[in-house]
Description:
By secondary structure, the protein is of the alpha+beta class. The protein has helices at residues 2-13, 16-45, 119-134, 149-159, 179-200, 202-209, 220-223, 249-266, 280-286, 318-321; strands spanning 171-176, 226-233, 235-237, 243-245, 270-271, 293-302. Strands 1-2-6-5 form a 4-stranded antiparallel β-sheet. A two-stranded antiparallel ribbon has the order 3-4.
Amino acid sequence: MERADSKIATGLDAFPFFAKYGHYVLATVVLVSIVNVILRRYSKSSSIVSKEPVATKELSPDEGELSYRAPVSERDRDNRYVIRDAEFNEYETAVGPEDEPYLPKDLQHVKFDYKRPSEEEIVERSLQFYKIADARRTLRFFSPDPVPREVIRNIVRAAGTSPSGAHTEPWTFVLVSNTSMKENIREIVEREEEINYLKRMGKKWTTDLQPLKTDWRKEYLTTAPYLILVFKQDYGFLPNGKRKIHYYKEMSVAIACGILITAIQYAGLVTLTSTPLNCGPALRVLLDRPVNEKLVLLLPVGYPAEDATVPALKRKDLDEVLVEFE
């Protein structure tokens, strides 16, 4: 036993640092390993609260602030609301056999039904469409006058004709006209927008918005007869319940929103493209949308108020936005 100890001591003498501090190094390595294991286990058990964006709210049986309640699957260990959106990388998480398309393999291709107009006609059409689009303005003052629901449904139907990656159609349009629901939406938005304007957005951003006379108050959310909330589907589901990849979902939904806004203008109505920060998860839960959907835009839709005003803005000239090669 003495010989073994002697050999060990002799070996350590060759490394004076380890001979003197080796037990500290060993203790540090063991401690770091233990902490790492604990953190990994905690991260797995509470990953739902470690990712942004997160909205939390204490659960209380006697509180009556909001009418929405997060599902049990979206509460943490302390029974707090933990509302977040799903995360899904469409290019890393392929589902199903790679040689099996989502669309039918024998998908029929039919002749395109098209009657070619004259050059004079397409010039006239393009000019008329430009005039309609150029008259579009962002409105913050709405009339409460009712709008036929059929009109709004036709507008959304038009937006649904948008092209999409692999024809996955990764969008959901939620139409809200219920007064109580609109009040809840406004409460959520204004609560977050007040924080946005006071803290999150910063001095420069709020300064740039001053000429437009915007603030955290959003009266139009309860004045306009309709609210359209556009959700992006990060992924879909196959008939067998497995995930369906959505390609180019951001671009696809953006195009659909452009068609939606243009259809609103063409119908003779007005809107506002609202993108309130940090409201998406709470609004998703309020509207009972699944975790694979994320809020992209919130648009109030209706007629303008009689005394509505808009900023006297000027758009860029064509030569400022168009580069031509002939």
